[in-house]
Design brief:
Length: 463
């Protein structure tokens, strides 16, 4: 998993190579091995500097989401998840404060926890590799980077550059990462380790992180300045407009960065852990992790990942959406209101209704308040159609229904899919709401509601 070699100049080369894995990932065994190895190298007086590299073409693809085991479920709380992720935070912080200069040398991709590890190093070098990507994609799973990403990234490149990367989960090429200042150098793959050694022997790598020095301030305007406040205000407005408050991680990331940059790094990392714990325990994160990660992986292995936009599931969902929208219009709701309601709950496929020009926003507080309930009514109609296709055997599993409804019918990602939405609300409560809407409930779902069943087991999000 971790091997180290110390050369005649005292430079330790620490190589990551996870056995039995196609790519390196961070799990608890790796975290503990890293902590122990850093402690050993720190205590060795012969070691003058450390290079962390990978024995694979990529650096680290991210955290193994099996680490979610023990963070959620019966007997756990947000504090449980916060304390569990602390093991990773502490290991990276021990590396950062070991008192010896540390260089991260990446042959290829570093995502999620892999990039967080690189950010905890004092100097970051990558090989010129057109396939390599760098980023913090945790938001796409409904969570935030929990091992320092929300705190180190803005301290490295500034608030204005960091927020879009954190809020969008965008992946960068090596050249883009260098341009932003996430990477310090690019070199040819064959020269990567030699370049890292030169950086150490030439004294270009400090033994402390900039934020551990007295008087440190992130690049850009001071965090308490009006200019910085305007950056947060703009980002907050954009998040509300695009996410419609359906994605708790977006607001949590903004708050985490805003609060953390006003604190010393250790207190800031604690703030990050607390936000991480609350998100992991939320319904949205559980649904997104289950569907967007585990279900997609399983369907890919089974050769069932491709969604057919003209298939039975997608057609049934779209027909249900259009039919319910027409019923709502017959009840007196305007086409513009119905489409705004669909957008408010995150539907990327809007109902087929006649509407004049652009969708007007409303200044009427009562109408704004009515958008979400109306949007949820549309989602319930689509979810019933998805449940019926499962009953008929048109899809092989609840996971397939969820993934394909998102991909082919525009169902909102934050729900985890239509059947995950039913689980999120609870089958009995969901069925009661459908009956109040005068919607026909499939036999299988009615029985599930009566028996207290679910489409997905409570353990699936941490499979």
């Amino acid at each position: 998993m971790l091997t180290s070699e110390i050369d005649s100049g005292g430079i330790a080369l620490l190589t990551i190579d996870m056995p039995g894995r196609s790519m390196n990932v961070i799990d608890w065994a790796f975290t503990e091995a890293l902590r122990e190895e850093i402690a050993r190298l720190t205590a060795d007086p012969q070691v003058t500097g450390i290079i962390i590299a990978s024995g694979r073409d990529s650096f680290i693809a991210g955290a193994d989401l099996a680490i979610m085991n023990g963070m959620t479920g019966p007997g756990t709380s947000p504090a449980t998840a916060s304390e569990r992720i602390r093991a990773m935070t502490d290991a990276f912080r021990a590396l950062e404060t070991c008192g010896k200069p540390v260089v991260a040398a990446a042959y290829g991709t570093a995502l999620g926890g892999g990039l967080e590890l690189m950010l905890a190093c004092h100097h970051r070098i990558a090989a010129r590799n057109p396939k390599a990507v760098f980023g913090l994609p945790e938001v796409t799973l409904g969570i935030l980077p929990g091992a320092g990403g929300t705190q180190r990234l803005p301290r490295v490149i500034g608030i204005e550059a960091a927020l879009p990367l954190l809020l969008e989960g965008r992946r960068l090429s090596a050249d883009e990462a260098l341009s932003l200042g996430i990477l310090d150098e690019l070199t040819e793959p064959d020269d990567l380790i030699a370049t890292a050694r030169r950086a150490l022997t030439e004294g270009r790598v400090p033994a402390t992180a900039p934020w551990d020095a007295k008087g440190f301030a992130p690049p850009g305007p001071p965090v308490t300045s009006e200019a910085a406040s305007n950056v947060f205000l703009f980002a907050n407005a954009k998040v509300r407009a695009s996410g419609h408050r359906n994605y708790p991680a977006l607001e949590a990331i903004l708050s985490c960065v805003y609060e953390g940059l006003r604190l010393p790094i250790d207190k800031a990392l604690k703030v990050e852990r607390q936000y991480f714990g609350h998100l992991v325990h939320g319904d949205v994160a559980q649904a997104m992790i289950r569907t967007q990660f585990f279900a997609r992986q399983a369907l890919t292995r089974e050769g069932r990942s491709r969604a057919d936009k003209d298939g039975a599931l997608a057609t049934a969902c779209r027909n249900a959406l259009d039919a319910e929208a027409l019923r709502m219009q017959a009840e007196g709701m305007s086409p513009a209101f119905i489409r705004n309601a669909a957008e408010a709950v995150g539907l990327s496929t809007l109902p087929a209704l006649p509407v004049d020009a652009a969708l007007p926003s409303t200044d009427d507080a009562r109408e704004r308040a009515a958008l979400r309930p109306a949007g949820m009514r549309l989602l319930r109609a689509m979810a019933l159609a998805a449940a019926a296709t499962l009953d008929r055997g048109d899809v092989a599993s609840a996971s397939e229904a969820d993934v394909h409804a998102i991909d082919a019918a525009g169902f909102p990602v934050w729900t985890g899919g239509p059947l995950s939405l039913i689980d999120m609300q609870g089958a009995a409560e969901f069925v009661a709401a459908c009956r109040a809407d005068k919607l026909e409930v499939p036999v299988g779902l009615a029985a599930m509601a009566r028996d207290g069943g679910r489409f997905h087991s409570t353990k699936e999000a941490a499979a």
